[in-house]
Amino acid sequence: MRRAMKTSGAARKTGTAGAPGTLGTACRRAAVMLARGGALAALAVMLARPGWLAPLFAPFADNGAPAIYPRASLLDLTLSHLAIVAAASAAGAIAALAAGIFVTRRAGAEFLPVARSVVHIGQTFPPVAVLALAVPAVGFGVKPVLIALILYGLLPIFESTIAGLQDVPADAVDAARGMGMSALQRLAWVELPLAFPVILNGIRLAVVINLGTATIGSTVAAKGLGDVIIAGLQTSNTAFVLQGGLVVALLAVLIYDALGVIGRWLAPASAARREGGA
Prior knowledge:
MetI-like fold, 0% strand, flat, MetI-like, ABC_transp_perm/SBD
């Protein structure tokens, strides 16, 4: 009888304590979903119907200056901007991933300090300086921007690749070896899948870095959202600067969040693989 009373009391306490926590979690999720929807809606309006926002930007425009950037469609500039970022991020991810894999193998371990130094130099070297050096070699346009963005985005992907691969449980690798898998098979089917959530965090950071840095590409005639910002700076039109900056910021938030959702979705599968290997 006493045990039943204690169990009943514990159940009441658990239910009472758990309800506020569940409610708080639901409220946080609802707030996150609302913020995502608001950011997506704001971006859609700015790209598809920028004229609707003219009254909001008008106070930031000088006397008689247009409140909305008139020289090109914000949607076209955004697509060009995203194409540059996607190409640079993909190329940087391939290079950093290959380097990270190499230095975590037995044959390449001795090259880790050198590779890390080179990657850190790429991060610390200003992208503007890279553009200044690249333009005489490859000309104006997209090419020098790609070079600058690739170099600037290597570090987070390289370091996350090393961290992810080094964190793979030895038991999982040993189990794969015991099954007769070759070194390449172990890498492809065991190590990379387990390390991918960590690697994806580095890719998220690199993409966001490239989204912001790509705006300087307009200084070397690479079409993108930097056109709007630079036009605003040249004409002292704050409305243009705000438009370009807001679109870049919204893109960064939404893409970073989307990649985070993918990472959280993959994390349970990675954890299950780890437990299975153990």
